[in-house]
Amino acid sequence: MPKTQTKQGLFQFYPHNLIWLGLAVLAIILDQWTKWIASTHLNYADPVPVLPFLNWTLLHNYGAAFSFLSDAGGWQHYLFTGLAGIVSIIFVFWLMRMPKHSIILPAAIALILGGALGNLIDRMTLGYVVDFIHVYYKDHHFPAFNIADSAITLGTILLLIDTFFLEKKRIQRAEVKHD
């Protein structure tokens, strides 16, 4: 009986991974919807108390994470837009090549992808990223963020969990299959 060959190469996609693209799209939709609500219902830089440690505060971020390089003079807009575009393309290719049994890693990639694209949409259409979630404790304030930032953070946590705890199990399973 002839051995069946599996497709190899850069453009090998698995249809079952479309669900992970759906998760990325869901993150984008939730991000853009909540940014629209914040932009239409909040006054700029005017905090609206929600909980003793949480305000809705509309802010515009011209830099990267936590306003990094926001006062750099404008070149950072092109840098962050280009980086987000390149990383997003790489993540789509990576995501579509995931094995069927993987769950944590493709979820992580999908969340990071959705968050990156959500913020990229803002950068390309507005020239800045809309932030509105403001967490604080007494006089200690965490920089404002949005749903895209939350998706990126959750995705990164899942990626770290996969890397440090699940990769070893995948390697051991692969070794058992090859023995």
UniProtKB/TrEMBL annotation:
Pathway note? Protein modification; lipoprotein biosynthesis (signal peptide cleavage)
GO cellular component terms, semicolon-separated:
plasma membrane
Per the UniProt record, which residue ranges are transmembrane?
Answer: 18-38, 75-96, 103-121, 141-161
Catalytic reaction list:
Release of signal peptides from bacterial membrane prolipoproteins. Hydrolyzes -Xaa-Yaa-Zaa-|-(S,diacylglyceryl)Cys-, in which Xaa is hydrophobic (preferably Leu), and Yaa (Ala or Ser) and Zaa (Gly or Ala) have small, neutral side chains
A Pfam cross-reference name: Peptidase_A8
GO MF terms held by the record: aspartic-type endopeptidase activity
Q: Membrane topology type, per the record?
A: Multi-pass membrane protein
Give the UniProt record's GO annotations in the biological process aspect. proteolysis
| Source domain of life | Bacteria
Could you say which enzyme class this protein belongs to?
A: hydrolase
Q: Where in the cell is it found?
A: Cell membrane
- Keywords of the record: Aspartyl protease, Cell membrane, Hydrolase, Lipoprotein, Membrane, Protease, Transmembrane, Transmembrane helix
Q: Which family does it belong to?
A: Belongs to the peptidase A8 family.
Q: Tell me what this protein is called.
A: Lipoprotein signal peptidase
Record organism:
Acinetobacter ursingii ANC 3649
Q: Which gene encodes it?
A: lspA
